Amino acid sequence: MAQRRGSGRLVETVASGVAELIPDPDRRAAYSLMLDGAPQSYVDLDDPTHLEFEYIRRMAAAIDLIAPAGQPLRVLHLGAGGLTLPRYIAATRPESPQRVVEIDGPLVAMVRRELPLPSKATIRVRVGDAREAVEGMRDAGYDVVVLDVFAGARTPAHLASVEFAREAARVLAPGGWLIANVADGPPLRYARAQVATIRAALPEACLVADAAVLRGRRFGNLVVLAGRTAPPVAELTRRAAGDWFPGRVETDLDRFAGGVAPVTDSVAVASPSPPEGLFSHRK
């Protein structure tokens, strides 16, 4: 049952935990979506191109650069949250057919009710498991696959294997791109394994992240852009350097992965939990 609390905060129990929608006091129609205290999404209904989270801006920059401005793209989003990136693509690339897969049906219903999608957006949302959905899709049906799935604050193990990476690659067009959000901290074992795993299916790749995260000094988000042709490194580097919180692009992924083998289903694990208290300042 949804409950309204002070300052317009909405609290509702969904399938994956306790969801909260918190209004941004500085923007008229903007909200943060929290799940069990961890920030999941930020949505500005007045301006869907306003992206508050730095890793989302890095994902958006990759989407901006992989095709001419305004050109529609066929996009598959694995993980929904507040549907921030689908809204951004609908605003910047109108008429892009987008499909979203999210396992938490009550969360989808809450977001649709409280943060309605633009009426002209061609966004379809399916409730279900991301891997099961991808395995049932046709070959080469998408230009972009965005992987941003979290159960609580961790990416499930069955989405972290080379078998899954190959399924994601299969549904991409020959010139398509996988954009994955990888959360990790020192000593970056999970991130190194994920880079090796993704590159086993899509060998041309780069990483975009905060320099301190790339050096293994703190927990954070690393965005992987992977495909079958060279990524737009120079443009991504400029965009990352000019961000509110400057980031760095890493291209020497052989060195980054350090000889780690791709992860198979038999040994795949969920991403590490964030350090205790990491999100406490955002509550």
Could you estimate the helical fraction of the residues in percent?
A: 25-40%
Class based on secondary structure composition and strand pairing: alpha/beta
CATH architecture: 3-Layer(aba) Sandwich
- The total number of structural domains is 1
Task: Give the oligomeric state of the chains in this entry, treating copies of one chain as homo and distinct chains as hetero.
Answer: single chain
Low-confidence stretches: none
Please tell me what the overall shape is: globular
Give the strand order, joined by hyphens, for the main sheet.
8-7-6-9-10-12-11-13
Supply the CATH superfamily name. Vaccinia Virus protein VP39
N-to-C CA distance: 21 Å
Write down how many β-strands occur, each being a DSSP E stretch of 2 or more residues: 13
Summarize the biggest pleated sheet. Answer: 8 strands, mixed
CATH class: Alpha Beta
What percentage of the residues does DSSP assign to strands (E)?
Answer: 25-35%
Protein name: Spermidine synthase
InterPro entries: Methyltransf_11, SAM-dependent_MTases_sf
Keywords: Polyamine biosynthesis
Pfam family, one: Methyltransf_11
List keywords for this structure.
283 residues; alpha/beta; Rossmann fold; eight-stranded mixed beta sheet; five-stranded antiparallel beta sheet; 9 helices; 13 strands; globular
